[in-house]
Amino acid sequence: AADKINLIPQDFFAELCEQIIQHLNHKIPGVNTAELCQRIQTSGIEINVSDLAKIANIVSFLFSTAARNNLSTEELVTTLGNAVSTLPKHAVHVIRHVWNEQGKSISVSEDARNMATVGQFVDIKWKLGVAMSSDTCRSLKYPYVTVTLKVADPSGQITDKSFEMTIPQFKNFFRQFKEMAAVLETV
């Protein structure tokens, strides 16, 4: 991963680290590596989303472990120097700066450590479509709903999950949401 970190310009790496700290502080649901990767690629750097996601996981693990062990900035940098000699200097500089500025704000409560690892819902988009025909059927006129869920997994990576439903399936889906809303009203 160190060779991939070398590719990322310092300002993008700093933005990645800032987003990770915000995620660890529960201020944002996750790190949108797809959007950040697209911006890095637009600037002319060849990197793919999976490599950026791996880097985000490593830095997230680094920050959360440092927070759990109450490491000072110097202890973190010393540990980094001992463990990872191949880490680029600009990355160490960014990590030092971000940790010095915001590292102590990471709250690692006992509840957060023991919490089950589940994803977090971020956004939902839907669209109605009609299948007009296929190679085996000339006239379908079959309506369907396509739903795209944006979800942050426990590590903070934001991904899109898409699925299609028939109209009866969508009505059942909608009914279940109404039931959830009714239960939430009583809480």
Automatic annotation (TrEMBL):
InterPro entries associated with the record: COMM, COMMD4/6/7/8
Question: One MF term from GO for this chain?
Answer: NF-kappaB binding
Query: Which stretches are transmembrane?
Result: none
Q: Describe the location of the COMM domain by residue ranges.
A: 120-187
Q: What does this protein do?
A: Scaffold protein in the commander complex that is essential for endosomal recycling of transmembrane cargos; the commander complex is composed of the CCC subcomplex and the retriever subcomplex. May modulate activity of cullin-RING E3 ubiquitin ligase (CRL) complexes. Down-regulates activation of NF-kappa-B. Inhibits TNF-induced NFKB1 activation.
- What family does this chain come from, according to its entry? Belongs to the COMM domain-containing protein 6 family.
Return the protein name.
COMM domain-containing protein 6
Gene giving rise to this polypeptide: Commd6
